[in-house]
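ZP: hey, is the zinc ion complex queued? I don't see it on the tracker
AM: it wasn't, my bad. submitting now with these inputs:
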Amino acid sequence: MSTCTICHTTAPADAYLCDGCAHGLRARLRQIVTDLPLLRAALRPDTGPAQRGGSGRAHSPLPVDVRALDLLGPGHPVPIEDPHGDQTGGIPIGPLLKGWARYLAADVPAVWIDGHGTMRIDRCTDAQPRTGTGTGTAAWSAFLQAYVPYAVTRPWAEEFYHQVADLVARIERVTHTRPRRTPKDAPCPGCSAFALVEHEDQLHIRCEACGHRLTPDAYAAHRAEVMPALAAVALRIVAAQQRAA
Ligand SMILES: [Zn+2]
Ligand SMILES: [Zn+2]
Protein backbone atom coordinates (compact mmCIF):
# COMPACT_ATOMS: atom_id res chain seq x y z
CA MET A 1 0.00 0.00 0.00
CA SER A 2 1.19 3.53 -0.73
CA THR A 3 -0.37 6.98 -0.80
CA CYS A 4 -1.72 8.70 -3.91
CA THR A 5 0.38 11.78 -4.73
CA ILE A 6 -2.73 13.56 -6.06
CA CYS A 7 -5.56 12.92 -3.58
CA HIS A 8 -3.60 11.35 -0.67
CA THR A 9 -5.88 8.33 -0.36
CA THR A 10 -4.55 4.78 -0.42
CA ALA A 11 -2.96 3.72 -3.69
CA PRO A 12 -1.98 0.19 -4.78
CA ALA A 13 1.51 -0.93 -3.78
CA ASP A 14 4.22 0.59 -6.00
CA ALA A 15 1.75 3.08 -7.50
CA TYR A 16 2.01 6.85 -7.24
CA LEU A 17 -1.67 7.34 -8.13
CA CYS A 18 -4.76 5.66 -6.65
CA ASP A 19 -7.22 3.81 -8.92
CA GLY A 20 -9.58 6.80 -8.82
CA CYS A 21 -6.96 9.28 -10.01
CA ALA A 22 -5.71 6.81 -12.66
CA HIS A 23 -9.33 6.61 -13.88
CA GLY A 24 -9.52 10.43 -13.91
CA LEU A 25 -6.28 10.64 -15.90
CA ARG A 26 -7.65 8.25 -18.54
CA ALA A 27 -10.96 10.14 -18.66
CA ARG A 28 -9.12 13.44 -19.25
CA LEU A 29 -7.00 11.92 -22.01
CA ARG A 30 -10.28 10.77 -23.64
CA GLN A 31 -11.91 14.17 -23.12
CA ILE A 32 -9.08 15.92 -25.00
CA VAL A 33 -10.14 13.95 -28.09
CA THR A 34 -13.90 14.41 -27.68
CA ASP A 35 -13.47 18.19 -27.18
CA LEU A 36 -11.38 18.63 -30.36
CA PRO A 37 -14.36 19.41 -32.65
CA LEU A 38 -15.49 22.14 -30.23
CA LEU A 39 -11.98 23.61 -30.17
CA ARG A 40 -11.79 23.57 -33.96
CA ALA A 41 -15.22 25.23 -34.09
CA ALA A 42 -13.86 28.01 -31.88
CA LEU A 43 -11.19 28.63 -34.53
CA ARG A 44 -13.67 29.38 -37.30
CA PRO A 45 -14.73 33.01 -37.54
CA ASP A 46 -18.50 33.40 -37.26
CA THR A 47 -19.74 34.13 -40.77
CA GLY A 48 -23.27 34.83 -39.56
CA PRO A 49 -26.49 34.34 -41.52
CA ALA A 50 -26.58 35.64 -45.08
CA GLN A 51 -28.55 38.88 -45.30
CA ARG A 52 -30.99 39.23 -48.16
CA GLY A 53 -30.06 42.20 -50.27
CA GLY A 54 -27.29 43.14 -47.92
CA SER A 55 -23.80 43.72 -49.10
CA GLY A 56 -22.14 42.70 -45.89
CA ARG A 57 -22.55 41.71 -42.28
CA ALA A 58 -24.25 43.80 -39.67
CA HIS A 59 -21.31 43.09 -37.37
CA SER A 60 -17.69 42.31 -37.98
CA PRO A 61 -16.91 38.61 -37.71
CA LEU A 62 -15.92 37.40 -34.28
CA PRO A 63 -12.17 37.14 -34.00
CA VAL A 64 -10.62 33.71 -33.89
CA ASP A 65 -10.25 32.52 -30.32
CA VAL A 66 -6.50 32.77 -29.86
CA ARG A 67 -6.69 30.37 -26.91
CA ALA A 68 -8.03 27.71 -29.31
CA LEU A 69 -5.26 28.60 -31.74
CA ASP A 70 -2.66 28.15 -28.97
CA LEU A 71 -4.10 24.75 -28.05
CA LEU A 72 -4.30 23.45 -31.63
CA GLY A 73 -1.03 24.94 -32.86
CA PRO A 74 2.13 23.00 -33.73
CA GLY A 75 4.24 24.53 -30.95
CA HIS A 76 7.39 23.06 -29.47
CA PRO A 77 7.67 19.60 -27.95
CA VAL A 78 6.98 19.62 -24.27
CA PRO A 79 10.13 20.13 -22.19
CA ILE A 80 9.36 17.35 -19.76
CA GLU A 81 12.78 17.49 -18.14
CA ASP A 82 12.00 21.12 -17.33
CA PRO A 83 8.30 21.01 -16.50
CA HIS A 84 8.35 24.33 -14.68
CA GLY A 85 10.33 26.11 -17.37
CA ASP A 86 9.02 29.16 -19.17
CA GLN A 87 7.39 27.20 -21.99
CA THR A 88 4.79 25.35 -19.93
CA GLY A 89 2.23 28.15 -20.02
CA GLY A 90 1.00 27.36 -23.49
CA ILE A 91 2.03 23.95 -24.76
CA PRO A 92 -0.45 22.95 -27.48
CA ILE A 93 -2.29 19.62 -27.28
CA GLY A 94 -0.32 17.76 -29.97
CA PRO A 95 3.20 18.47 -28.67
CA LEU A 96 2.16 17.83 -25.06
CA LEU A 97 0.67 14.39 -25.81
CA LYS A 98 3.42 13.44 -28.23
CA GLY A 99 6.09 14.65 -25.80
CA TRP A 100 4.69 12.47 -23.02
CA ALA A 101 4.27 9.49 -25.36
CA ARG A 102 7.95 9.78 -26.37
CA TYR A 103 9.03 10.21 -22.76
CA LEU A 104 6.94 7.24 -21.68
CA ALA A 105 8.19 5.04 -24.51
CA ALA A 106 11.80 5.80 -23.61
CA ASP A 107 11.06 4.93 -19.99
CA VAL A 108 9.22 1.62 -20.56
CA PRO A 109 11.52 -1.34 -19.92
CA ALA A 110 11.14 -4.43 -22.12
CA VAL A 111 9.31 -6.24 -19.32
CA TRP A 112 7.12 -4.56 -16.75
CA ILE A 113 4.35 -5.57 -14.39
CA ASP A 114 1.10 -3.62 -14.45
CA GLY A 115 -1.03 -2.65 -11.44
CA HIS A 116 -2.92 -5.93 -11.59
CA GLY A 117 0.21 -8.01 -11.44
CA THR A 118 0.15 -8.96 -15.12
CA MET A 119 3.54 -9.16 -16.74
CA ARG A 120 3.76 -7.07 -19.90
CA ILE A 121 6.43 -7.35 -22.52
CA ASP A 122 7.15 -4.33 -24.64
CA ARG A 123 9.99 -3.48 -26.92
CA CYS A 124 9.62 0.22 -26.99
CA THR A 125 12.24 2.52 -28.40
CA ASP A 126 9.80 5.17 -29.57
CA ALA A 127 6.07 5.76 -29.31
CA GLN A 128 4.27 4.11 -32.23
CA PRO A 129 0.53 4.47 -31.81
CA ARG A 130 -1.34 1.83 -33.82
CA THR A 131 -4.72 3.52 -33.96
CA GLY A 132 -5.98 6.71 -35.56
CA THR A 133 -3.95 8.60 -38.07
CA GLY A 134 -0.59 7.69 -36.61
CA THR A 135 0.38 11.15 -35.55
CA GLY A 136 -3.05 12.53 -34.68
CA THR A 137 -4.20 13.61 -31.26
CA ALA A 138 -6.60 10.63 -31.00
CA ALA A 139 -3.72 8.21 -31.63
CA TRP A 140 -1.43 9.81 -29.03
CA SER A 141 -4.30 9.93 -26.55
CA ALA A 142 -5.06 6.23 -27.14
CA PHE A 143 -1.37 5.37 -26.71
CA LEU A 144 -1.15 7.27 -23.42
CA GLN A 145 -4.44 5.80 -22.13
CA ALA A 146 -3.09 2.30 -22.84
CA TYR A 147 0.05 3.04 -20.79
CA VAL A 148 -1.67 4.64 -17.77
CA PRO A 149 -1.24 1.40 -15.73
CA TYR A 150 2.53 1.68 -16.33
CA ALA A 151 2.65 5.47 -15.88
CA VAL A 152 1.11 5.30 -12.38
CA THR A 153 4.06 3.19 -11.22
CA ARG A 154 6.59 5.87 -12.18
CA PRO A 155 7.76 8.83 -10.05
CA TRP A 156 6.78 11.24 -12.84
CA ALA A 157 3.09 10.10 -12.69
CA GLU A 158 2.17 13.17 -10.63
CA GLU A 159 3.71 15.56 -13.17
CA PHE A 160 2.00 13.70 -16.03
CA TYR A 161 -1.35 13.91 -14.21
CA HIS A 162 -0.98 17.65 -13.53
CA GLN A 163 0.09 18.53 -17.08
CA VAL A 164 -2.86 16.60 -18.57
CA ALA A 165 -5.26 18.14 -16.00
CA ASP A 166 -3.92 21.65 -16.77
CA LEU A 167 -4.31 21.02 -20.50
CA VAL A 168 -7.93 19.90 -20.03
CA ALA A 169 -8.63 22.96 -17.86
CA ARG A 170 -7.29 25.21 -20.66
CA ILE A 171 -9.49 23.35 -23.19
CA GLU A 172 -12.56 23.70 -20.96
CA ARG A 173 -12.01 27.46 -20.69
CA VAL A 174 -12.49 27.65 -24.49
CA THR A 175 -15.13 24.96 -25.06
CA HIS A 176 -17.08 25.45 -21.79
CA THR A 177 -17.45 21.69 -21.54
CA ARG A 178 -17.50 19.92 -18.21
CA PRO A 179 -17.66 16.20 -17.55
CA ARG A 180 -21.26 15.15 -16.94
CA ARG A 181 -22.44 15.15 -13.33
CA THR A 182 -25.37 12.95 -12.29
CA PRO A 183 -27.00 13.28 -8.85
CA LYS A 184 -27.97 9.84 -7.52
CA ASP A 185 -31.30 9.13 -5.89
CA ALA A 186 -30.25 6.94 -2.94
CA PRO A 187 -29.05 8.67 0.26
CA CYS A 188 -25.41 8.60 1.33
CA PRO A 189 -24.58 5.53 3.46
CA GLY A 190 -22.17 7.71 5.45
CA CYS A 191 -24.35 10.68 6.44
CA SER A 192 -27.85 9.89 5.02
CA ALA A 193 -27.86 13.13 2.99
CA PHE A 194 -29.24 12.98 -0.55
CA ALA A 195 -25.94 14.28 -1.86
CA LEU A 196 -24.35 11.41 -3.79
CA VAL A 197 -23.12 12.49 -7.22
CA GLU A 198 -21.60 10.51 -10.06
CA HIS A 199 -19.02 12.28 -12.23
CA GLU A 200 -18.26 11.03 -15.71
CA ASP A 201 -14.51 11.48 -15.17
CA GLN A 202 -14.35 9.89 -11.72
CA LEU A 203 -14.26 6.26 -10.70
CA HIS A 204 -16.16 6.79 -7.44
CA ILE A 205 -19.60 8.14 -6.67
CA ARG A 206 -18.97 10.82 -4.05
CA CYS A 207 -21.10 12.41 -1.32
CA GLU A 208 -20.95 16.20 -1.61
CA ALA A 209 -21.99 16.53 2.05
CA CYS A 210 -19.48 14.29 3.83
CA GLY A 211 -17.01 13.17 1.14
CA HIS A 212 -17.97 9.49 1.42
CA ARG A 213 -16.94 7.56 -1.70
CA LEU A 214 -18.27 4.35 -3.15
CA THR A 215 -17.74 2.44 -6.36
CA PRO A 216 -20.64 2.13 -8.86
CA ASP A 217 -21.04 -1.53 -7.82
CA ALA A 218 -21.15 -0.65 -4.13
CA TYR A 219 -23.69 2.09 -4.90
CA ALA A 220 -25.90 -0.34 -6.85
CA ALA A 221 -25.87 -2.79 -3.91
CA HIS A 222 -26.56 0.03 -1.42
CA ARG A 223 -29.41 1.39 -3.54
CA ALA A 224 -31.01 -2.06 -3.92
CA GLU A 225 -30.88 -2.39 -0.14
CA VAL A 226 -32.27 1.00 0.92
CA MET A 227 -34.60 2.10 -1.87
CA PRO A 228 -37.46 -0.42 -1.33
CA ALA A 229 -37.70 0.65 2.34
CA LEU A 230 -37.56 4.35 1.36
CA ALA A 231 -40.27 3.81 -1.25
CA ALA A 232 -42.46 2.09 1.37
CA VAL A 233 -41.98 5.04 3.77
CA ALA A 234 -42.87 7.49 1.00
CA LEU A 235 -46.05 5.53 0.20
CA ARG A 236 -47.08 5.53 3.88
CA ILE A 237 -46.54 9.34 4.05
CA VAL A 238 -48.67 9.87 0.92
CA ALA A 239 -51.40 7.58 2.29
CA ALA A 240 -51.39 9.43 5.63
CA GLN A 241 -51.67 12.78 3.86
CA GLN A 242 -54.60 11.48 1.81
CA ARG A 243 -56.38 10.25 4.95
CA ALA A 244 -55.82 13.62 6.63
CA ALA A 245 -57.11 15.57 3.63
ZN1 LIG B 1 -5.80 9.65 -5.95
ZN1 LIG C 1 -22.45 11.64 3.01
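AM: back. The pocket of zinc ion (ligand 1) is lined by residues 4, 6-7, 9, 17-18, 20-21 (CB under 6 Å).
ZP: great, adding it to the tracker
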